[in-house]
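Posted in: Protein Modeling Q&A

I'm a second-year student putting together a small comparison for a lab meeting, and my supervisor asked me to include a predicted structure for ABC transporter ATP-binding protein. I've never done this before, so apologies if this is the wrong subforum. The sequence is pasted below exactly as I got it from our records. If anyone can share the structure token output, I'd also love a short note on what stands out.
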Amino acid sequence: MGVEIRVEGLTKSFGRQVIWQDVSLSIPAGEISVLLGPSGTGKSVFLKSLVGLLKPDRGHIYIGDRDLPYLPEHQLYETRKLFGVLFQDGALFGSMNLFDNIAFPLREHTRKTEAEVKRIVLEKMDLVGLMGAEGKLPGEISGGMKKRAGLARALVLDPEILLVDEPDSGLDPVRTAFLNQVFIDLNAQLDCTFLIVTHDINTARTVPDNIGLLYQRHLAMFGPREMLLSSEEPVVRQFLNASKVGPIGMSEEKDASELEAEAKMGLDSGKLPPIPPQQMPSNGLVRRGQHAPGAWCAAHGVTPPPGSFVDELGRNWVDEWPRYVASMQAGQAVGAGGVTPPGGPGFPPPGPGPGGAAH
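Accepted answer (user: helix_wrangler)
Welcome! Here is the predicted structure, written out as tokens:
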């Protein structure tokens, strides 16, 4: 079971340089959240603050009822055990094989026997698709395998919160899509709280339950996926369209003269792309953090971009979702008897929408 993270008025600076200030948000327990933002906006600094590696200038980080920045050392040490962290490069020890890398937290922080360590390590390696690679060194494997090994290591202490820093860094789009599927399947299986920092728009559009955007030294927006993907905020439209037109410049923000020149020329960052169906777990079951497609938009009177929630087969999942959920529930009820649920093999889960990620 995941844990809620509640952040209130968080501010961090290095010397005179303010990284971000007065950041407040609640990351729901057991859901997948993604944090976006231009380079240099302090996304990795935010992750390090959440786990207590950096102390904020002011503000609060509540992990359950514990206010992380103000905990005494021994309580901070215990609270950190709730976290697993996947670093950008995997952060593997080059002189250790994958088995020993993944076993390291168990040997360092627990008193488990080697037989128990072996069972847990092999279980996590199987979970991320690395069985058979136990004896390989980090220098002998691909970037994608390093990421999965780092993920297995982050999971060995059964964390309730998983922080993931730019998992797409150094990976091609296909491996990124496969890794995203691993995250979704792990969340469905383990029910832990995920926070993923990424620059990959495809990941942000298809994977999470919630999205946040850091910009201009503050949190511009955080909320359900559909809220951000349907927002007409200029910075959101520019980021989602990867457009040069808009408030984001080569340095974090453009000056007033650049924005005025764009306005005079009638330039626009473009229309928001359609919201794709959300990527599903491999078993097709609905995760706890998932909501019916279009539910947030309907509840808030927002018209999503044209073509939203339509997959590659032309199915509109606003209409298909109730029938799909009923089909899966029927399948769970009779699955033990080996009976194919209504619409089973002939009723596949949502696929990628226009521009969406392949499963």
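A couple of things worth pointing out for your meeting: The CA atoms of residues 168 and 176 lie 5 Å apart. Residues 5-252 form a domain with the Rossmann fold fold (CATH 3.40.50.300).
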